[in-house]
Amino acid sequence: MYKTFRKIDKPFVSAYRNFVKEILNKFIMNNTVFITGASSGLGKATARLFQQNGWNVIAAMRSPENEN
To answer: Which of 34, 40, 45, 53 has CB atoms 3.0–4.6 Å from 58's, for a disulfide?
Structure first.
């Protein structure tokens, strides 16, 4: 049903991490974020990044019991 995507290149992940950090630094108006698709992949990485930077994270996922 769902396609498996290839692993993301490290330079892309690094650029994405820097992009999110820039957003965190520029828009610190409210430190709560709602992230969908947080059980794996980019959603999970984003949720962790926000959490590590002191944000309150509300993480939504389709099947929390299958969270990896």
So the answer is: 34
